[in-house]
Design goal:
Layout lengths: L5 H14 L16 E6 L6 E7 L6 H19 L4 E4 L3 H13 L4 H14 L2 H11 L2 H30 L6 H9 L3 H11 L5 H5 L2
Parallel strand pairs: 2-3
Antiparallel strand pairs: 1-2
Helix pairs in contact: 3-5, 4-5, 4-6, 6-7, 6-8
């Protein structure tokens, strides 16, 4: 071990005595673990597009301001995702969450599932804030209206399949997938009308 000179040690010793420790070698690592971390993937590539961290906090505000950035940084690093938001029980936090969901490139169905998960994971106070904001003009088209369409698409697709099954018209796997994946409400209506009188499945899908 090299010999430490008085000129080197004396100033450091004064700092230790009057200002406290000069290094962080003995700091105990802290593990930042959120209550719930939700990752939504890009509909086209499958890559993580958004991380939503749900973390009801019971600590004092001073502690929160240091913990929250750590949650976001750790989650982004773990998922290798550029976008991450922290769900908090404030209008500002709710606005950030809704904007992040809206700006992802996920399909309407995937965004609906993500929003449902977040609402179930949030506290009662946070859930009410999110629901109230989703009915506002700023967010209504992105959430309420698009989710109504998703529900109609699924319901009409089921009606087409049930009508064909009731009439004993056997569908191929590809035809069933075609109906289930259809997002064109007018097309689903046409298929349903044909399903009521068609003699074969070809009569239904022949456009």
């Amino acid at each position: 071990m090299p010999t430490l000179t008085l000129a080197h040690e004396a100033p450091l010793e004064l700092i230790r005595q009057y200002l406290g420790p000069t290094d962080m070698n003995n700091v105990i690592p802290v593990q930042f673990t959120a209550d719930s971390v939700i990752v939504v993937s890009d509909a086209a590539t499958g890559a993580p597009a958004l991380i939503v961290i749900v973390e009801p906090q019971g600590r004092d505000d001073k502690t929160k301001q240091y913990a929250w950035p750590a949650y976001i940084t750790n989650a982004r690093r773990a998922a290798q995702c550029e976008r991450a938001v922290l769900l908090m029980e404030t209008e500002t936090g709710a606005r950030q969450v809704l904007a992040a969901i809206r700006d992802t490139r996920a399909s309407d169905a995937d965004r609906k599932r993500l929003t449902t998960i977040i609402l179930k994971s949030a506290s009662d106070a946070a859930r009410q804030i999110l629901r109230d904001m989703m009915t506002m003009t700023e967010w209504k088209d992105d959430f309420i209206e698009s989710y109504v369409n998703v529900g109609l698409e699924q319901a009409k697709a089921e009606y087409v399949l049930k009508a064909l099954d009731k009439r004993g018209l056997d569908l191929t796997v590809e035809q069933r997938e075609q109906v289930s994946a259809c997002t064109d409400l007018a097309q689903l209506d046409r298929w349903f009308d044909r399903a009521l009188t068609a003699a074969t499945t070809a009569d239904v899908f022949n456009d």
